[in-house]
Amino acid sequence: xxxxxSGNYRVLIVDDDFRVGELHAEMVNAIxxxxxxxxxxxxxxxxxxxxxxxxxxxxLDLYLPHVSGIELLRELDVDAIMISAAIEPKNIDKAxxxxxxxxxxxxxxxxxxxxxxxxxxxxxxxxAGTTEFNQQGVDRLYRSLQGGEESSASVGAAPTEHAVLxxxxxxxxxxxVAEVAEAVGVARATAQRYLAALVANESLELQLGYGTRGxxxxxxxxx
Length: 223
Fold this sequence. Notes:
The chain is α/β, with parallel strands linked by helices. The chain has helices at 18-29, 46-53, 69-75, 89-97, 110-128, 135-145, 159-170, 177-184, 188-200, and strands at 9-14, 34-36, 57-61, 79-84, 102-105, 175-176, 204-210, 216-222.
């Protein structure tokens, strides 16, 4: 990821209609934590701009002059969300198979775009917040990309997960895996699995601390 000095996610908007590009830029800038770069109308310059500006995310129109959004998408090594009024199944299928993380249908309002961008940001944080995923964690990634909200202790969550979450939340200081396992009464591997899932859904935060022998270790704290 390439966040700027203010910590915002940088978004490059590609749309051949400058008025639409400016409108979408205003929507992006209204979302806390996001900054729109100068919208681009000519898709031929986009690959070089992505290399030089290093945006975190591209909002890419499907119908563009000179080269289609689908062709351009295949060239870009960057997260991208396709935006288009082309709602035929073949277009959506091609966009997703070509690497789009989501597809947003024009025209859309600011609330819809904010939901997608916040979901994408949650997806990026989940990827960065753990070293490995179980199936539940992968499923959370997909839900995040669709703009789905995750609660810290969702309905139907395993009782052990609730116990692990409560244990860390009630602790006076960050806890290690071993401390959580002992407090909850489960094996270390079990505690590690639930802690990783809770970090992935942003219920807990992973920190680097130091054990009694001075070796760095993962410690967990409530957000």
